[in-house]
Design brief:
By secondary structure, the protein is mostly helical. The chain folds into two domains: 49 residues; 235 residues, MetI-like (MetI-like fold). 75% of the residues lie in helices and 1% in strands. A two-stranded antiparallel ribbon has the order 1-2. A hairpin with a 6-residue loop joins strand 1 and strand 2. It starts with 6 loop residues before the first helix and ends in a 5-residue tail after the last helix.
């Protein structure tokens, strides 16, 4: 028994193949554009960065404790900027990581569907608030509050910057952690309940360990976001490149220096101009390393369930 395919069916198949080919081409173009943009950013940073290190020793850049590129007696030690960036990011992590994880556990394991649909958009509103508003909130509300309990707190300080940046990255941590928790199969929960475990025990001893790789990746991405924050830390922490571990003092981050030095009056081709690219490359490499680390954690510790 033979069957023939009509011309209408062949035309429909040909049209579908053409549409799928067009969609694949558009997706490939988007992926290629993203790659080209990344390559362009690296190329733009690399040229001036190489010019900077022709005039400044890499050893001095990485080991000197003074960052004074705009003074007559110039010093190019990036350690004060690195310490300011990572100190504020660490303080933000102390606030955001536990709060974000606890929020994710509540949304995933305790909240009902209706409450989850209400709370999650409200929480994500925090991610939509402009960072400059967070900076002024830190300067006008959090810093005066800190000075009530700790009078030695400076007007511009790392503690206030850490608090607001921590609030800013809570949505990132909680959203990614909740996705990881909800990806854990219900069979694990049901097995634990069958053994007599309570909801708290199921959440903390079964679900969280099973989703640990995704949770750790969310932590690393959140800290990466904190390291790259600009306006909030510029307003709250100040522009003093101070190598200190005291969060009550003013300090400068890498992003804050870039804002300070790139106001339009830095002559192109000067050593001060090139410091922008050297610091930008340092920031780029730091955040890239953190993103690679998060991907490695996901690949290394990812649990697959069937």
């Amino acid at each position: 028994m033979s069957s023939t395919v009509g011309p209408g069916v062949l035309a429909a198949k040909r049209s579908r193949r053409l549409k799928e080919g067009a969609i694949a081409s558009v997706l490939f173009a988007c992926a290629a554009a993203s790659t080209l943009v990344t390559v362009g950013v690296v190329a733009a940073l690399l040229g001036e960065t190489i010019g900077f290190f022709r005039e400044v020793s890499l050893v001095e850049f990485l080991t000197s404790t003074r960052w004074e590129p705009m003074f007559r007696d110039r010093h190019f030690g990036v350690l004060p900027l690195l310490s300011g960036s990572f100190l504020i990011a660490a303080g933000a992590g102390v606030i955001a990581l536990p709060l974000g994880l606890l929020t994710a556990i509540f949304l995933s394991e305790y909240a009902g569907p209706r409450l989850r649909r209400t709370l999650k958009p409200v929480l994500e509103v925090l991610a939509g608030v402009p960072t400059v508003i967070y900076g002024y909130f830190a300067l006008t509300f959090i810093t005066p509050l800190l000075r009530v309990f700790l009078p030695e707190t400076e007007i511009f300080n790392a503690a206030a910057a850490s608090i607001v940046v921590g609030v800013m990255i809570i949505p990132t941590v909680s959203s990614l952690s909740e996705d990881a928790l909800r990806a854990v199969p219900d069979s694990l929960r049901e097995g634990a309940y069958g053994l007599g475990a309570t909801k708290l025990e199921v959440s903390t001893r079964v679900v969280v360990p099973a989703a640990l790789s995704g949770i750790i990746a969310s932590f690393i991405l959140g800290l990466s976001r904190a390291v790259g924050e600009t306006m909030a830390v510029t307003i709250a922490a100040g522009n003093l490149p101070n190598l200190t571990l005291n969060p009550l003092e003013s300090m400068q981050t890498m992003t804050a220096y870039i804002v300070q030095a790139s106001l339009g009056d830095t002559p192109q081709g000067t050593i001060v101009y090139r410091t922008l690219f050297a610091v930008g490359m340092t920031l780029f490499l730091a955040t890239l390393a953190m993103n690679i680390l998060s991907q490695w954690v996901l690949a290394k510790f990812r649990e697959e369930y069937r």
